[in-house]
Design brief:
Layout lengths: L9 H10 L6 H12 L3 E2 H12 L4 H13 L4 E3 L7 E3 L7 E5 L5 E4 L25 E4 L2 H6 L1
Parallel strand pairs: 4-6
Antiparallel strand pairs: 1-3, 2-3, 4-5
Helix pairs in contact: 1-2, 2-3, 3-4
Length: 147
């Protein structure tokens, strides 16, 4: 089940950037808007989306924006094995992901236990655990139909 999030306005995104000490720039706003429109986007998809919104913008500029947003906790990235890193605005709620082995589609899955961390390891090796990353792998409905 995916938790519905309100779609932020440009003013909300401007305030969000300022709240974490980032300057408001057109590439940052365009990247946030692209991530709202396309959750779990790859960097290549985001470059195309940001270019569609702004015109000319370098690949490096989008990567720099993603790094800044991720380091300030405004986006998170996941890296399913064998697939490019994906970025999303949903963060901080310890949700997990389901990934299609065939096409790489990604979906959100809420934590089964309802609190973080969702998985308590049998041996934490002295670590203080604050997040558990779970990837469920399978075949999406579109790929099952195509078989």
């Amino acid at each position: 089940m995916v938790i519905e999030q309100d779609v932020p306005s440009t003013q909300d995104d401007e305030a969000l950037l300022r709240s974490v000490g980032l300057r408001v720039t057109a590439p940052r706003l365009a990247t946030l808007a692209a991530l709202t429109a396309r959750p779990h986007a790859s960097a290549d998809q985001l470059v195309a989306d940001v270019r569609a919104r702004l015109g000319s913008v370098s690949v490096q500029a989008v990567y720099d924006v993603l790094h800044a947003l991720n380091s300030r906790g405004l986006v998170q990235h996941i890296e399913p094995a064998g697939h490019p890193a994906r970025y999303e605005r949903r963060h901080g709620d310890n949700h997990h992901h389901v990934v299609c082995r065939t096409c790489g589609a990604v979906g959100d899955v809420d934590c089964a236990t309802g609190h973080a961390p969702c998985l308590i390891p049998s041996n934490d090796h002295g670590f203080t655990i604050d997040t558990a990353e779970v990837l469920y792998w399978g075949t999406c409905p579109s790929c099952r139909t195509a078989d």
